[in-house]
Design a protein that fits this description.
Layout (H helix, E strand, L loop, with lengths): L2 H5 L23 H6 L9 H12 L4 H8 L3 H10 L10 H11 L5 H8 L3 H12 L4 H13 L2 H5 L26
Helix pairs in contact: 3-4, 4-5, 5-8, 6-7, 6-8
Length: 181
């Protein structure tokens, strides 16, 4: 049996998402300055948005990050979405289909809210996510900032592969095995 016989009748039914080239931030321009150019496209100030991004990417919840930035959780979620941050929509993908059905006029709003299963705030945020694509310039600036401030990016092996002065290639990220005994 040849490869062409094996492949006969096969077809691709899914496509792979092209994520592009990995981004690294070597400009050392603060995120606030990068966001200032796009302040009109953000639901809050560039300063608050930068604080949100830093807090959220450090592992804080949207609510905690919003409190730290001095904005409401809804505004914080919208700002993070505008920055291209994944995972801020409170509805699962199948429930987001219900929001799309409502936006397309296939079902009534009251029915969509009931089918989506969240509350009014969840439905409103999901509607915002479905109707507002993140501006690519903002998402790229945030990606570059996050890549340049990754926990293992700063204190780990250098770009030339060299190890830090203490000989620890991971910059102490794994801790000491003595603490596990």
């Amino acid at each position: 049996m040849t490869l062409s016989e094996i492949a006969d009748g096969l077809e691709v039914t899914a496509s792979q998402r092209d994520r592009g080239v990995a981004v690294a931030d070597d400009t050392e321009t603060p995120l606030v300055d990068r966001l200032a150019e796009h302040a009109d496209d953000l639901p809050c100030t560039p300063e608050a948005t930068a604080t949100l991004v830093d807090a959220y990417t450090a592992g804080r919840s949207v609510g905690d990050a919003a409190r730290e930035a001095g904005v409401t959780p809804m505004t914080g979620a919208k700002a993070l979405h505008c920055c291209g941050v994944e995972g801020v929509c409170p509805l699962a993908p199948t429930r987001r289909d219900v929001v799309r059905d409502w936006l397309d006029g296939r079902i009534a709003r009251s029915e969509a809210v009931a089918l989506a299963g969240g509350d009014e705030a969840d439905f409103a945020l999901a509607t915002y996510v479905e109707t507002h694509d993140p501006p690519s310039e903002i998402a790229e600036a945030v990606d570059a900032h996050v890549a340049g401030s990754a926990p293992l990016g700063g204190g780990s092996a250098g770009s030339d592969g060299s190890v830090g002065d203490d000989g620890d290639a991971l910059g102490g990220a794994l801790g000491s095995p003595d603490g596990l005994r």
